[in-house]
From TrEMBL:
<keyword id="KW-0243">Dynein</keyword>
<protein>
    <recommendedName>
        <fullName>Axonemal dynein light intermediate polypeptide 1</fullName>
    </recommendedName>
</protein>
<dbReference type="GO" id="GO:0030286">
    <property type="term" value="C:dynein complex"/>
</dbReference>
<keyword id="KW-0175">Coiled coil</keyword>
<dbReference type="Pfam" id="PF10211">
    <property type="entry name" value="Ax_dynein_light"/>
</dbReference>
<dbReference type="InterPro" id="IPR019347">
    <property type="entry name" value="Axonemal_dynein_light_chain"/>
</dbReference>
<comment type="similarity">
    <text>Belongs to the inner dynein arm light chain family.</text>
</comment>
<keyword id="KW-0505">Motor protein</keyword>
<dbReference type="GO" id="GO:0045504">
    <property type="term" value="F:dynein heavy chain binding"/>
</dbReference>
<feature type="coiled-coil region">
    <location>
        <begin position="94"/>
        <end position="152"/>
    </location>
</feature>
<dbReference type="GO" id="GO:0005930">
    <property type="term" value="C:axoneme"/>
</dbReference>
<dbReference type="GO" id="GO:0097546">
    <property type="term" value="C:ciliary base"/>
</dbReference>
<comment type="function">
    <text>Involved in sperm flagellum assembly.</text>
</comment>
């Protein structure tokens, strides 16, 4: 009973009319939008006082307002739970995105490293190929030179043999 008397004194002292409510909201720095426990508490106190005053004059209206208040509290609780759930969902998704980002960055680094290794292998293989081509070109030039020298030698030998054969034929005649 003592708590109820203190509550009534606060109500009367606070002057729960529109200006008094606005002053209380400002003094307690209640937010104007979103979920604000201070604003909710002040409006709840104001609504409770309205229910009390209405119940004194008409019990049926007081009970109806009481049901409206209870329904409003259930609705607000549902919105609060939905809000908290959506915030938690958003945080989970942000964490998943960060983890996914970290994974993708790691994979990108791995692929970059693999690409550099493959480019290094390509350079090595190109160098090997160029070395083989140089060796083959040198070998071919040496073979062509040997072949040319051999053909030249065989032509000279052929000319000498022709000359000797002509000398032998001329000597017989």
């Amino acid at each position: 009973m003592q708590a109820y008397r203190e509550y009534l004194q606060r109500m009367q002292k606070g002057g729960y009319h529109l200006a008094g409510l606005a002053r209380q909201l400002q003094q307690r720095q209640a937010r104007e939008t979103g979920l604000c426990p201070v604003r909710r508490e002040l409006y709840t106190q104001c609504f409770d006082e309205l229910i009390r005053q209405t119940t004194v004059s008409c019990a049926e209206r007081g009970l109806l307002l009481l049901r409206v208040r209870d329904e409003l509290q259930l609705t607000l609780s549902a919105y609060q739970a939905l809000y908290e759930s959506s915030v938690a969902f958003g945080v989970r998704k942000a964490l998943q995105a960060e983890q996914g980002k970290a994974h993708l960055e790691k994979r990108t680094a791995e692929l970059e490293e693999e690409k550099e290794e493959l480019e290094k292998q390509v350079s090595e293989e190109k160098a090997k190929c160029e070395a083989i081509e140089r060796q083959e070109t040198e070998r071919r030039e040496i073979e062509e030179k040997k072949h040319s020298e051999e053909v030249l030698f065989l032509k000279r030998t052929n000319q000498q043999l022709k000359a000797q054969l002509e000398c032998i034929i001329a000597a017989k005649n």
